[in-house]
């Protein structure tokens, strides 16, 4: 099973600042990497698929990059509504697996 | 607008069974693939399994913790997918979400990704004596 490791576990960022979240895969996932955002009491929301393609309605301040085993989600100017937990997910291998999440807090 | 609504969760004793439903609207359900994902309260996400469309032979895949105990099926006439859960254990306690993947088109056709695009609101399953 492919293990996805996210860091940091918690990130505290001031509004308007940049947030950088990391995701590492135990083996290459080529380009099959997605990111999700989950707020308390809600289902996750797809942000990014195929490493860097924003899903419908996702603002341009949210971007994804990386390749192979190292990936990054960047929020260029953090807004209050960006707080919550972010998960990466690989879909290159079975079973589909998620990272453990990064909690983003607004300072 | 595409919507998924889960139901059927509740309290069940260890060894018991439960059947969850996922009703879809706003999409051509007979072509949709449906995943089930679960989340222990306060913890991360775990993929449970998936069923493809009838066009794709309704092929199912399962994650190892549930393989042989859980069964995913669908009734396209009711726009509904099901998760039959048998031999439930305490570590099956979780919020259960159904989800459909995103898809893309190119010159050779349309394809589903193995991501999770549309999600339901979830239904809580508690396994406890």
What's the topology here?
The complex is a heterodimer of chains A (107) and B (129).
Chain A: E1 4-7, E2 10-13, E3 19-25, E4 33-38, E5 45-49, E6 53-54, E7 62-67, E8 70-75, E9 84-90, E10 97-98, E11 102-106
Parallel strand pairs in A: 2-11
Antiparallel strand pairs in A: 1-3, 3-8, 4-5, 4-9, 5-6, 7-8, 9-10, 9-11
Chain B: E1 3-7, E2 10-12, E3 18-25, E4 34-39, E5 45-51, E6 60-62, E7 70-75, E8 80-85, E9 94-100, E10 103-106, E11 109-112, E12 118-119, E13 123-127
Q: Tags for this entry?
A:
heterodimer, A: 107 residues, mainly beta, 7-stranded mixed sheet, 11 strands, B: mainly beta, 4-stranded antiparallel sheet, 13 strands
Structure, described:
The complex is a heterodimer of chains A (about 110) and B (about 130). Chain A is mostly beta strands. In chain A, about 0% of the residues lie in helices and about 50% in strands. Chain A is built from no helices and eleven strands. Chain A has strands at about 5, 10-15, 20-25, 35-40, 45-50, 55, 60-65, 70-75, 85-90, 95-100, 100-105. In chain A, the strands form two sheets. In chain A, strands 2, 4, 5, 6, 9, 10 and 11 form a seven-stranded mixed β-sheet that branches. A four-stranded antiparallel β-sheet of chain A has the order 1-3-8-7, with no helix packed on it. In chain A, β5 (about 45-50) and β6 form a beta hairpin. Chain B is about 0% helix and about 50% strand. Chain B is built from no helices and 13 strands. Chain B is elongated, with a radius of gyration of 15 Å.
């Amino acid at each position: 099973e492919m293990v996805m490791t996210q860091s940091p576990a918690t990130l505290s960022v001031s509004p308007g600042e940049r947030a950088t979240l990391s995701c590492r895969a135990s083996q290459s996932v080529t380009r099959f990497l997605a990111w999700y955002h989950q707020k308390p009491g809600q289902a996750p929301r797809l942000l990014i698929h195929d490493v860097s393609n924003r899903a419908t309605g996702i603002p341009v301040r949210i971007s994804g990059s990386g390749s192979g085993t190292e990936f990054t989600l960047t929020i260029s100017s953090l807004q209050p509504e960006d707080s919550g937990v972010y998960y990466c997910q690989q879909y290159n291998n079975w079973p589909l697996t998620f990272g453990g999440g990064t909690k983003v807090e607004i300072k | 607008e595409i919507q998924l609504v889960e139901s059927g969760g509740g309290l069940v004793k260890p060894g018991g069974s439960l059947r969850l439903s996922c009703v879809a609207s706003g999409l051509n359900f007979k072509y949709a693939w449906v995943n089930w994902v679960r989340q222990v309260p306060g913890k991360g996400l775990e993929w449970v399994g998936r069923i493809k469309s009838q066009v794709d032979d309704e092929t199912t895949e399962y994650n190892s913790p549930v393989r042989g105990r859980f069964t995913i099926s669908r009734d396209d006439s009711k726009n509904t997918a099901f998760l039959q859960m048998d031999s439930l254990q305490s570590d099956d306690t979780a919020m259960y979400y159904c989800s459909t993947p995103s898809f893309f088109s190119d010159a050779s056709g349309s394809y589903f990704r193995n991501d999770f695009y549309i999600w339901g609101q979830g239904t809580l399953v508690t396994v406890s004596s």
